[in-house]
């Protein structure tokens, strides 16, 4: 149990700086995190394809207990969500369709193939986000999809994207919350291209056709996601940051920034306030790249805290959607979800406990010494007591006690798979 005296002491310390810890906790409770399904099964999906993921994606590790069926995956997500404070969302890929054992091509997917996912989400009070799957398919083997020079292959992937938008709208209607349908493609060249222009012209035309069907924004929001490079596309990615920034602005789409999709010395925290004057909404895929875009489990890092701080300082939460995006098969997969989600929520809470108005006042008055001194002082304030209270009020374990529940689940469920 959280110590009431510890929380009272923490509240008093923050109150000296004009921060209301109760208000911060209330605001945190309104911020959902979208939990990505692919952490639970190593992006295998349920198409029965097997083999490598492809598309510049790689999952490392062979920790036992991978989800093998939709029911196992949903049970694992339920377990993770039970250990994370707050009410959240889930994020699905098209390859997680349930087709009753029938072969259904990706361009022929229908909402009915995700009916079980919607039923599960409704029972748990969850909203749903969605992604077309532009990898792990024979028509993506050469590394190109929507920007492919073959018009027939482009047509297949355009139809897949159109089908996925309708599925997104199906989830939005069914949950009462807009589904963000996010388009990411692996298209690019491993070595130096002779023509950077034409693939981007093809991609622009393909996206325009993909998005041409009007869908109600209260049901579906379209997002486009950039990348610096991938395995097999180290020299040229068609859908670069600059390309999708221009596309999102000109076509009024949600811009997706993945914290693992940029150069290791480049951060997305600085980009948030730079792009939001130009796009209405932003989707953040919170990941952790280590030396390359390796999608490590999110931790309470300086960059994660910087992202959260920018969101809180700008009061961007009504316009920014936050989702996790990592896949680590070297550790317990359910634990990875819990670690990443709790780290993200911790970062958001700490950001909400910052006396942003006081810092801005110092900055505007030229008191840069005071600004730096206060920023340093905040690092040692009793933030942990406020986090423990957050967990207690949400009925989830405090500290690392949640790991005991994961150990039990591993013994009783995961180890028997």
Radius of gyration: 22 Å
Helix-strand string: HHEHEHEHEEHEEHEHEEEHEHHHHH
Strand coverage percent: 5-15%
- The domain tally reads 1
Overall body shape: globular
Largest sheet: 8 strands, parallel
Low-confidence spans: none
- Quote the average pLDDT: 96
* Helix proportion range: 40-55%
Going by helix content, strand content and strand pairing, the class is alpha/beta
Number of strands: 12
CATH top level?
Alpha Beta
Instruction: Output the number of helix runs.
Output: 14
What would CATH call the homologous superfamily?
Divalent-metal-dependent TIM barrel enzymes
N-end to C-end Cα span: 34 Å
CATH architecture group name: Alpha-Beta Barrel
How are the strands ordered across the major sheet?
Answer: 3-2-1-12-9-8-6-4
> Which fold name fills CATH's third level, the topology?
TIM Barrel
Tags for this model:
417 residues; alpha/beta; 14 helices; 12% strand; globular
